[in-house]
Design brief:
The chain is mainly α. Helices cover about 80% and strands about 5% of the residues. The chain folds into two domains: about 160 residues, no CATH class; about 35 residues, no CATH class. The protein is flat.
Length: about 220
């Protein structure tokens, strides 16, 4: 079927709107990535104070590009954190005109919950999980008579990856809620298999954390 001029114009307008919103997201990411790079020294000082503390870990460089790559990693992570809420808002604003009132409320609840849970996951990782993991690895190295000289770039990459993964893991309630809303999963099935789900959660936590029962229970 031929597309009328009005419909074609509407499609082009939608594409232009999508392009504009993507530019906003990319712009926010770029600006905060640059700021993160420029203030990476301050960020590193905070990380050393909060995470490594008096653990005895000494951060070192083993390659000429390690420090530069670390600054880039910090910038990218700051950029990602800054653009996530902007991305969700732009996505919501783009699809809102085509949603019913009920769908709008559902999408709004889902996006806000997703953002809050992601933040909670990152905060939990930074304030609890990473500290426990650092002390565990330090203790393991010390008991083996090995000095704790950690590559600064690898350490920062590990810290950010762990925080990001925990932010994703904390999305499980939203994912479950969406599956129930779409009727892809029956709530009675979840109730009947609650025990199996709990066991699966503990297995996953055991895989993604050190072999420390306290850490595994906290993540689970």
């Amino acid at each position: 079927m031929a597309v009328s001029g009005k419909e074609r114009k509407t499609l082009l307008e939608h594409m232009e709107e999508l392009r504009s919103r993507l530019i906003v997201v990319i712009g926010v990411f770029a600006v905060f990535s640059v700021l993160g790079f420029l203030f990476s020294g301050d960020v590193l000082s905070v990380i050393k104070r909060d995470i490594t503390g008096n653990s005895g870990v000494e951060l070192i460089v083993t390659h000429p590009l390690d420090l530069f790559c670390m600054k880039i990693n910090i910038g990218i992570f700051i950029g990602i954190l800054a653009c996530i809420p902007v991305l969700l808002y732009q996505a919501y604003s783009f699809i809102k005109p085509g949603l019913t009132k009920k769908e709008t409320r559902t999408v709004k609840i889902g996006m806000v919950s997703s953002l809050l849970l992601f933040i909670a996951g990152v905060v939990f990782s930074y304030s609890v999980l990473l500290r426990v993991m650092v002390w565990f690895f330090v203790g393991m190295a010390t008991s083996s008579g090995v000095s704790n000289l950690w590559n600064i770039n690898y350490f920062i990459s590990f810290l950010f990856l762990t925080s990001f993964v925990m932010g994703i893991v904390f999305q499980l309630p939203v994912i479950t809620w969406v599956l129930l809303k779409l009727e892809l999963v029956d709530i009675e099935v979840l109730r009947r298999n609650r025990g199996n789900v709990v066991i699966l959660i503990f297995i996953i936590s055991a895989i993604i954390t050190p072999p420390d029962p306290v850490t595994q229970i906290m993540v689970a």
